[in-house]
C-alpha cells in the first residue's frame, strides 16, 4: 500500500480536542488507502517549559540530560494520538525514537539523523497497524536519547518519508500554505499551489517561518514531496517539490522581507588581502549573524566595507569591531551604523531563464522613490536593503510589478 | 564500594527547589562513600494529569499506550535530578527503564519485574557515575514500555536495591517514619526505630499508607533493608527489616484503624456447603472489597453471615446480593447493614510468643464500654469492628494499655 507521512506541530496537538481533530485527518487518509506514519510534536508550550526547567537547574547543562528531559513531551502526544486513533477506529501504535530505531549522531541537542531502520514499522504496517512516531528524537550509538534541535519534528517527518518511500510528507501547521508574500502586507497575497525546494529554502532563510530550513534541505536531497497545510481547515496547502513537477510558474514566486535589519559601514579600511577575514572573523566570534556584504571600490588603498545584521546585534558588532581596532588586528577610520533599514527580496526559479528581473525590481523601487542601499543576488533571488519606512510600499509594489496576484 | 538506593516520591521532587533539596541528601550519602542509585517518581500531580488525559481520550484505553504516556513524568524528573546532582558536584546520569534494562512481564499498567540487568549500572559505578533511575517503569519482552502500577516507584526502588545488593533502600517521603499509631489521634504516638516486614505489611494493608504493600513484600522476599524517612528533615526514619534485626520490641508494635467500615449481615441463610461461595462470588464480581467475615452458629439449618466492607460500597453490595436472591442463586431472609462502624487493629510480631494479647485487647475495650461487633485475628494481628464514635477512644486506650509510648 502507498505510504504517507503526516506531521502535526505543537499547535495542532495542543490539547485533546485538537489531537482528535488531527486524528480525523489521519483517518481520512487511511480510508483513502494509505499506510500512515503520523509524526507528532509536543503539545505547544510543553517543550519550552521543559527547556526552562533544564536551564534553571543548570545554565551549562549536560546536553545528554537535556535531551532525556525535553524529548518527553513528544512521547506524551504520540501515546495520546495512538489512543485517539484507536478510539475512532484506526488501528495504531506509538513509537518512540529508540523503539523504531531512528539512529542519530551523538551531537546531543542538535543530533543529525544517521539511519532509520524501518523493518519493524513495515512489519506493523503489514499487520494493519498505522504508526504514530514521537518527533524530534532519536537514539545515539551509546544508547542515549538524542534530539534534533528545535523544530526538529519537521526533520523527523521528512526523514521518515524518505526512509519509508512515502508518496508525500504532509506538514500540518497553523498556516494554510506558502504565500506569494505576507498577507498582512497585501491582501493580494496568493497561496501558492506549488513551490520548488530551492525557492522554499530561500524563503525560509529570508524569514518565512513555515518550515524548518533543515527539513526542506533534507526533502530536496531525498526528493520527498512536502505539503504544507493547515490543521484547522480542509483546504489543500502548498506542495514543495522538485522544479520538474512545476509545469508553469511566474518568473518570481514570492516577495519576502525582513524588518529589523541594520546596515553597518566601516569607512577607511586598508584594502589588502585578508581584510575581509580581519573584519568578519571577530564578528563571527561574537556570534553576529552577518547577512549581506558589500565592498566599495577602493581609492588610495582605502576601501569601505558594508554589511547588514539584525538590529539587536549592532551594539555587540560595534563592540567586537572596536576591540579588534584596539588590538591592532584591524585598521579602519570609523564605523557608521544605520538601524532604520529593512530587507526586501524577490525569489523565483524563473530568474534562471529570464533576464532583466533584477533591473525590473530596481526600476519598480525607483518609480516609488525608494532608495536602495545594498544589493545582493543569488541565482534565484535578489535582495535589497532599503529604509524601513518604505518596506510595506516596496513589497506591495514588487508584488504588483511581477503579477503575483495571479497564477502563471 | 557499598551501594545505596535512595527513592524520592512525588512530593519530594515536586519542583526544582525540592529536587535540589533531595540532591543534597544524595550528595551527603555519596560523601559517606556509597555508590548511589537514586529512584525518582514524577513531580506530584504529573502522573494524575497524564492518567486523566488517557482516560478522557478513551475510557477503555490500550494499556500499552497508557504506559507510554504515563511513564513520561518519571523521565523528566530523572533527567532534572541528574542535572541537579551534576550542578552540585556529584557525577551522575539518568536511566530510563528500557536503558537499564529493567525487564518486566507484558501486563501493561501493572507489570511485574522479571529481571534487572545491572551490568551497565555497575560499569558506570566503576567509572564514578552515580545513577538516577526513572521509577515505576520497565520494558516488556516485546520492547514496549511498561509501568508497575500506581506507587510502583517504591517497588522499583526495592527491586534495584535487591539487584544491586544495596546495603539499604531509603524511601524518602512526606512523613518521617512509621508510628505506633496515627499522631493525629494521640500525641503519645511514637516513631518506631525498627519494624519487621510482617508488621509493616499488616499496617500497610490496614491503611497506613507509608509504603506500597508490594514493595514491602519484595523487600521481605529479598531481605532488603528499607528505611522510611522524610525529605523535609534530617531525622533518621524507621527501618523496615527482618525480625532477627530487631533485638527488643513491644509485644504490640502498633495500633491501626480504618474509619469508614460498614457491617453487613445476612440473616437466615440456608447453612449448606457452598453457601459462602454463593454469597462472596456475586460480591467479588461486583468488585466489593470484603474484609472481615464471620459466620454465626447455625440453628435449624439456618445461619447468619456477617462481613465488613468500605461504607461507600454498601449500596453496591446490597444490589449484588438482592440480584443473587432474585436469580435464586442465593437464599436468605434479610440483609441488615450498619454503616456506623470502624475497624481497630493491634499488630505485633511479639504476639506469636505471647499469649493473652487478644484477651488484653478485649478487656481494655470492655473497660471503656466499647462493644465489639466482629473479631478477626491473624498470627500477628487482632482486628475488631466497633461503633465509629468509639474509634479514637479505642485507639488511645489500646495505645496506653500496651505501653506503646515507650520503646521496649
Task: Describe the structure concisely for a colleague.
The first copy, chain A, has 408 residues and is an alpha/beta fold. Chain A has 12 helices and 18 strands.
What is the topology?
The structure is a homodimer of 408-residue chains.
Chain A: E1 3-8, H1 16-31, E2 35-40, H2 46-57, H3 63-70, H4 72-87, E3 92-95, E4 102-104, E5 113-116, H5 119-126, E6 130-134, E7 137-139, E8 145-147, H6 152-164, E9 168-173, E10 194-196, H7 197-205, H8 213-222, E11 226-230, E12 238-241, E13 254-270, H9 275-285, E14 293-295, E15 302-310, H10 314-326, E16 334-347, H11 357-367, E17 372-378, E18 381-387, H12 391-401
Parallel strand pairs in A: 1-2, 1-9, 2-6, 3-6, 9-11, 10-12
Antiparallel strand pairs in A: 4-5, 7-8, 11-12, 13-15, 13-16, 14-15, 16-18, 17-18
EC number (chains A, B): 2.7.2.4
Catalytic activity (chains A, B): L-aspartate + ATP = 4-phospho-L-aspartate + ADP
GO cellular component, one term (chains A, B): cytosol
